[in-house]
Amino acid sequence: MHCTSCGAQLAPLPPGSQPLPCPFCRAPVQPSPAIDPRLAAYLVDRNGNGVPDVLEGPGAAQPGLYRAAPAPVLLEAIPPAPRTPSPRARSLVYGYRGAQGVMLTIGLAFLGMGLLFTTIFCWGLPWDLALAASGARGQATVTSTETVNNVKVNGVRPTRLSFRYRVGPTTYDGDSATLDGMLRRTAVGATVQIEYLAFAPSISRVVGTTRATMGYTPIFVVIFPVVGAVLAFGAWRSNRREIRAFSRGAPVLARITFRGADMSVTVNHRHPFKIVWEFQVGGRPYSGSFSTMQRGELGGIEQSEQLAVLYDPRDPSVNTLWIA
Which of 320, 237, 249, 252 is CA-nearest to residue 284? Predict the structure, then answer.
């Protein structure tokens, strides 16, 4: 049955009992009218899932196959802030669940693999960018040239030029690589123009070459750790906001607007179960959501029409479920 005032789903009152206030809007709820015993026999629901046993077959009589809707939560029962989470709340709210957990996992994977490949393929590239931005000019003498046989870029093997130069009273040795045909033919003993960092003169290269053996070609690899860091940070920030709302937020009743599979996320051919809710603060509507790969962890709260939500008074868009 439902409350005639606010529409909240309620457990039916036995015929003949005294009216009780709705736990959500406090309006009086009338007991269910008496029904014909013959009809009542067809409405037996021994597993408490809201579907008569005659419509479910022989297996319906087994208790525990379905979870009955939980009793409505009274906002007065929610402890004041700051709150200490229960073990269940620490697992569901403080942990990374559903889409949040997927985002964190993918972000860390991209970050880890991206850093590995960046280290392998882009070694020396940060110095090249620094030299291109603020390199000082000088002259050097080529001391040797060598073809890098273990690397090939667009079918061409780079040539590494070694050179010697002076900055003030100090002599430095440096080397850099090139794919340019003219620079690759530079003779030993030739004078070349170089770039070096004024604050670290030992970091240098011949103008037109790079310290990175493969040049700027593998710079796209840097995209992977950047994307990974953004995803991981987004998941961490979302989690911290939910923790703040749970610990110090104000309680409010929210109406469930969606419950079902989150088709935008897939993990091992499975979709997380997602709840979306809506509530109002100061006359303005706000929404929130929660998702998990294990629907049973919700304890049946997803079956209610309304649920208790905790929101940040400074920013009600930051909100999360109340988990006792």
Answer: 252
